[in-house]
Amino acid sequence: MDKFTHLDENGRARMVDVSNKKSTDRLALATGKVFLNDKTYTMVKNQEIQKGDVLTVAKVAGIMAAKNTSNLIPMCHPINLTSVDIEFKMDDERKVIEIFARAMLNAKTGVEMEALTAVSVTALTIYDMCKAVQKDIEIGEIKLLRKTGGKSGDYKNESYIG
Predict the structure, then answer these.
(1) 128 is a catalytic site residue
(2) pLDDT for the residue numbered 4
(3) Is 118 exposed, middle or buried (0-12, 13-18, 19+ CB in 10 A)?
(4) 105: confidence class by pLDDT, cuts 50, 70, 90
(5) Residue 18's Cα: distance from chain center in Å?
(6) What is the DSSP string of 93-155?
(7) Which member of 10, 24, 96, 151 has the lowest number of beta carbons within 10 Å of its beta carbon?
(8) pLDDT digit string, tens, across residues 17-49
(9) H or E stretch including 58?
(10) Which of 115, 114, 132 is nearest to 52 (CA)?
(11) Which residues carry a binding-site annotation for substrate?
């Protein structure tokens, strides 16, 4: 079994010491989905939700979340992101909004948690802005699609085509 890096010699939680690691360019791409009914999906697409432009507000929320990940996830290192972007793919047939978050930096630690946090908060913001119209919105399939850089090397999820 691999050694858990977030545990000290006594088995207690700790933040990993990255002092001696080399800084490298790192990228992470994460995704998630928001499942809506016909009415809500159409209202989001046509910018008819009373709270405002759902996708623009959700994008800003996701970027802010990525920048604040170390304040939310106890063992995450505070990092200096160089880029965070969020894109949406609208699936008109299934009434699904697919979220893609890309985070980048040059550092001693990865950026996966920032991309995953961005997706999660983006999805939650869509939920918050639409909950007055639809109570049974579902959020799911949040996962890391790809990461590059660092000692452990590159990773690509089997479902990722890009």
Answers:
(1) yes
(2) 58
(3) buried
(4) very high
(5) 23
(6) TTTEEEEEEEEEEEESS--HHHHHHHHHHHHHHHHHHHTTT-S--EEEEEEEEEEE-STT--E
(7) 10
(8) 788 888 999 999 999 999 999 999 999 999 999
(9) helix 54-67
(10) 132
(11) 75-77, 113-114
User: Looking up tokens 């623009």, which residue turns up?
Assistant: 56
H or E segment and range at residue 59:
helix 54-67
Q: What is the DSSP letter of 158?
A: T
Q: pTM of the predicted model, to two decimals? A: 0.91
**Any idea which of 15-29, 39-53, 74-88, 143-157 has the lowest mean pLDDT?**
15-29
DSSP 8-state assignment for residue 3: P
User: Active site residue: 2, 92, 128, 136, which one?
Assistant: 128
pLDDT at 101: 98
pLDDT band at 57 (very low <50, low <70, confident <90, very high): very high
Report which of 26, 110, 122 is spatially closest to residue 76, judged by C-alpha positions: 110
